[in-house]
Amino acid sequence: MNQAFFLGVDVGGTKTHALIANESGRVLGFGQSGSGNHELVGYPGLINALRQATDEALASAGLAKEHIVAAGFGVAGYDWPSERQATLQAIGCLNLEVPVEAVNDALIGLLAGSAAGWGVAVVSGTGSNCRGWDRHRQREGMVTSAGLLMGEGAGSAELVGKALQAIAHEWTRRGPATRLTPALVAYAGAEDLADLLEGLLDRRYSLTAAAAPAIFGVAAQGDPVALDLIRWAGRELGELANCVIRQLDFQGLEFDVVQVGKMYAGSPLLTETMRETIAALAPRARLVRLTTPPVVGAVLLGMEQTGILPSAALRQALARSAAEVQAHVPVESVEQ
In the prediction, which pLDDT does 329 show? Predict the structure, then answer.
């Protein structure tokens, strides 16, 4: 077997995906497992997620570990340099005797979405994150990815939290009436707004990030409060990008801002507001919606470890092949 095979793994907070492709960009194997974020499942959980997803990908490809020539890993929870050694040790449990590289999972979204392989990636899924690389990858920009604790938003969890505040303000007469109230009352299965608020406090009801589509639905009906929440989220995501743009001195450059995650499918207003926020600082920035699985970026990262500089044709072939594989994966397993 003379082909070179590359492993890419996208370790997330809710799922882990592994992809195996050859040097021409053809995907041969796919595997998946649960959360591998060490902040949620510990490093033993990270190891288990890596092993399960990788073993499944190898089995579906009909390959052994010895056939892999290099590997790339995007790891949720790998946020600080102090976590690098522990992250690499976890990856080492796969017993891959090949070059490997590990980065924060936002950066594989950047690799997958930007043709140049540098710029800024803004993740908005359940939570949010932002990372960037300069043209030569000598500098990396980042935010804390700690959410509203550090004044950063907005993922779907933060959007739902803001909507909850809005309906609570309606009940206390601090804020205006909003169509969010009947929508979220119905979503939770509550009797009325008072029952919903009391039930949330005594944990009879819950409003999680999964309620975000209901908020986008109300905004689409023209509700002013819901529309303001979408604009808030767009400004927050734009400001995350601006943080990294300032850190990397991108203000006058032409570069990609890659949008990663399911929140961006919610409303064009989100992207419009985000674009306006970024353009005030970096007018030449281009917003690019990631349409391929982020794990593609992990495969590209693996290829780079052997000196391959992926061409546009290779990127396109890998994206097409990965999309074909993704089409056969349950929707809940591929959402970001």
Answer: 65
